[in-house]
Amino acid sequence: MLPPSTLRICSLLLLTSPGSAAAEAAAALTVDVYSGPTDCPDDSKVQPGNHISLHYVGSIDKSSATGKPGKTFDSSRVRSEPVDVTIGIGKVIKGWDEGIVGLCVGSKANLIIPPELGYGHDGVDKDVPGGATLHFDIEVVSINAAPPERVEGNLFAEIDTDGNGELNESELEAYFKSIHVEEVPDEMWEHEDKNGDRIITWEEFSGPKGSRNPMGDEL
Ligand SMILES: [Ca+2]
Ligand SMILES: [Ca+2]
């Protein structure tokens, strides 16, 4: 697997950030359901371990000590497809795990997430600096039977848009831009490009990549 420092930047969604226990104890998460049901049968209520589809707009909260208040840093709405995540078991930031469990399908809520339950003291990129308080406007779209493909899926194939079994600089740039990281992080090259030729092959890549080299089939 990728080392944690590389994983941090591979996806805003899948990553959790360590925070100090003392800070977490003091941190307050706010969840305000502004639309849809606030009470529902258990099978419509998000439980830990559920696979859910979720719309979100992530911005820097107006109360944030760092970053630009109101600045949107990521949104599923611009992609018009909700994201699929497994909730409540440490696969996403703590603010999502704690704030979304218990919500009903069809509800929309504003979550205000202190840095300790978000991206901590390190942040993610220039739009989400360390210490940022996050604001997520979310909608619980559905609870799904199957686990989200993205979590278990094939990150390599996702980045390798021309499907040639190698990740070149422009494919990596495009991928990181899509997750709002301006530049391909140096550590990506350091950890993944084992022979230093600025191409990350399927063999070199240590992240989720499926079981077969996509080029292996074309003999
Ligand atoms: Ca390629
Ligand atoms: Ca290489």
Automatic annotation (TrEMBL):
Keywords: Calcium, Endoplasmic reticulum, Glycoprotein, Isomerase, Repeat, Rotamase, Signal. The keyword Glycoprotein applies. One of its GO terms (cellular component) is endoplasmic reticulum. Its EC number is 5.2.1.8. Residues 49-144 form the PPIase FKBP-type domain. The keyword Glycoprotein applies. It catalyses: [protein]-peptidylproline (omega=180) = [protein]-peptidylproline (omega=0). Residues 1-22 form the signal peptide. GO terms for molecular function: peptidyl-prolyl cis-trans isomerase activity. PANTHER family: PEPTIDYL-PROLYL CIS-TRANS ISOMERASE FKBP7/14, PEPTIDYLPROLYL ISOMERASE. This is peptidylprolyl isomerase.
